[in-house]
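Continuing the batch. This is chain 6 of the set; chains 1 through 5 are on the previous pages. Same settings as before, nothing changed between runs. Recording input and output for traceability.
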Amino acid sequence: MNFHISEEHQLLSESLSRLLGDQVGFEQRRAIAASAEGWSAEVWRQLADLGVLALGIPEAYGGLSEAAADRLPVAQTLGRALSLEPYLATAVLGSTAVLQAGSEAQKNALLPALASGGLRLAWAHDESGERHNPTWVDTRATHEGASWRLDGHKALVLHANAAGRLVVSARVAGQGGATQGIALFLVDPGAAGVALRHFRLVDDTPAAELTLQGAAAEALGDPADAARQAAALRAVLDAGTAAACAGMVGAMEAAFELTTGYVNTRKQFGRLIGEYQALRHRVAEMRVGLEVSRTMAMAAALAADGAGSPEATTELLRAKLVIGRQARMVGQAAIQSHGGIGMTEEYAVGHCLRRIHVLDQLFGDADAMAARLARLGA
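Output for chain 6:
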């Protein structure tokens, strides 16, 4: 397995870093977070122009590549910039759902618009019934003639305010946490029977709770094809897990850079605080955690392309577990190294830890990953 970033990925990361450095510095990010939308349509357009939204989409549908691993440098760079744009919701979760579950007509209609940035999707899957259980779905889909109706509640829908369509998981058979019987549907967020309660996560990411009461829905692919629907759900969650891992690494990089810059310029009692042995050891531990996490994020990105296999599942669980724990350590150490300024709204390092907290919770936190690995081992 190759754990070295390719030249193409390096160039893409550098181009994206330049774009974000020009458009989304920390003060610009604060202004975006304070806006009503909570994300920037102009930055989204520039991401589309750069081609990053077309990664993970085959060329036959207007994309640039089919490999989920090609999203690694994008998710990592966006994480380092603490980006608020709906990349995870649309370009990772939404596009993977359409690609894996959609009919040929749906893919031809939706994927080119996703690749160009003209269409945004939101992924509505998480429910409050059983914490971090990826197959716990109580939302029901009822077939009425040629149409479908959905009833249920989704607890967390990222960037629902930016979405032209919602991709909703719902049960057509089975109960609770059964692995079979879940299908994917497209829902118009403005349709009758659809209610969204918008809010912001701790890292300022826009999100919403979704309530469905007899809401009209379009089946994504064939709900009766249980094997394909289950495989599509796994692929979406695996792609999201890999992207969350990469995003955490990006936030770790930002926290580490801020910390090394601070301890090498801040003086106390006439000496740079970075000269004190305790801080030198702390920074060294942060560096080790960051390097380990970079390798694990690459392993997760490669595993996402083999979604569904036992080996890929194990790699993704391990990566999310290791990165989640290391990222929290790095974020907390960064704030401790800064002292009181690290906790202020006006300084970026605290926002790095907030982003780490959010990404750690998505798709199952470190403790949930450890429990699932234990069950696999048993």
